[in-house]
Amino acid sequence: MAAGDLLAQRSIEGNFLEEIADIKTRLQKIETQLSIIATGYLALPSVPANYTTSNVITDRTFNANSTSTDELADALGTLIADLIALGLLQ
User: Fold this and answer.
1) What digits encode the pLDDT tens for the residues 22-61?
2) Taking burial as the number of CB atoms within 10 A of a residue's CB, which of 22, 35, 61, 83 is the most buried?
3) What b/e readout covers 29-63, taking b as 16+ CB neighbours within 10 angstroms?
């Protein structure tokens, strides 16, 4: 291979590597911007005050046509416990 051809090839390779580095930098900036946007949309403004339940029996099922206040209270208490476990409530 002639010296001129070798220099031309290295120049092309150098340009190609610079373009790849530029694309990588742009993608990192986009990733950072998307992360900032997602955080703004997904962040809760604040966690509500502490919820306390007592005498709750874990219940994730009830028959809407035939239920009792106790069964609904257990389902609500279970939901509150689940939300606390997820960090959405305290």
Assistant:
1) 889 888 888 888 877 766 666 556 666 788 889 999 988 8
2) 83
3) eeeeeeeeeeeeeeeeeeeeeeeeeeeeeebeeee
